[in-house]
Amino acid sequence: MAEVTGITVASETASVHGPRLRDAGVTPCRGLADWIARALDVQGYAHVESPVPFEDYESVARLIGTIILRSDVQIDVDRDQMLRQTRTIERPSIYSAGPLGFHTDPHADLVCWYCVEQDEIDGSVLLLDTSDIGGHFSAAELAVLGMVQLKSFTRDSDSTLEQYTFAPMLTHRDGKYRMFYAPWLICGPDTDESRSVLEKFRDYVRDKEATQLITLRLKKSECLFVDNHRMLHGRGSIAFDSKRRLARFYLTR
Ligand SMILES: O=C(O)CCC(=O)C(=O)O
Ligand SMILES: [Fe+2]
Hints:
Layout: H1 6-17, H2 19-23, H3 28-43, E1 45-48, H4 54-64, E2 66-74, H5 77-86, E3 100-103, E4 110-117, E5 125-129, H6 133-136, H7 139-147, E6 149-154, E7 163-168, E8 170-173, E9 176-179, E10 186-188, H8 192-212, E11 214-216, E12 223-227, E13 231-235, E14 245-252
Antiparallel strand pairs: 1-12, 2-14, 3-13, 4-12, 4-14, 5-11, 5-13, 6-7, 6-10, 8-9
This protein binds 2-oxoglutaric acid and fe (ii) ion.
2-oxoglutaric acid (AKG) binds at residues 73, 94, 100, 105, 111, 125, 233, 235, 248.
């Protein structure tokens, strides 16, 4: 297959839904799931740049992993209010219009969004690829990042009080680094060493945002699958009355 780029996504997807694979006995969802898995491996995300029915998004997600959480990402003042009442620390929310700084989400191996409705002006998902982290930090600095702890929240529903455990910012598994990062969840250790390496990490994120930002504006019925251990995601602010709505799944693999 040709290099995995946004352009290839569109043509590959078109062929997945076309007669060629059907004739070969490959179901459209299986073909698309295989393509997404390859794109995730190569570039850390897969943007399906052609409209698919929501049912296909769900079927494809089930072929790739196990859906552990479903959420509607949209401006919703009531849900935002309820969430704030059940949260034990103040932090950005998917239901409010404010910007979301770069982070990964808790628990998920993959985070996926299906665009039910896009914002009129923008509403892009912003991504940064951290797969080069091993080349930017010394072994000693990586070890320090491995000791940084973040609160990792769970809740049964939006209306119950959240619980948390602690999880390290960086782990190393099968020759790859896995990132868990949300600046608002960092809770220690409070040492000179970790403060200085975290400062360097913030510079790394700022430089990456300036030079390697991936901006993906999903059109209605398009979807995006993201390796949540490799890519940081974020979003700019959107209007309070924005109709933007994304159907998000957390997947484990
Ligand atoms: O609104 C977005 O684009 C992303 C929000 C977010 O951080 C999430 O859905 O986990
Ligand atoms: Fe998120």
